[in-house]
Amino acid sequence: MSGSTQGQAGVAMQPVMAGADHGQSDEDLARADLYGLLAELFGAPPTDHFFNRLAASPKSEDDEPDTPLTQAWHQMVRRAAEMQPAVVREEFNALFVAVGKPEVVVNASFYLAGSLNQQPLVDIRHALADLGIERDPSTSETEDHFAALCEVMRFLVAGELDGDGPPIDLLAAQRGFFGQHLAPWVGDFLDAVERHRASDFYKSVAGFARAFFEVEQQAFDIYAASQPQS
Question: What is the pLDDT of the chain when averaged over all its residues?
Answer without folding.
Answer: 88
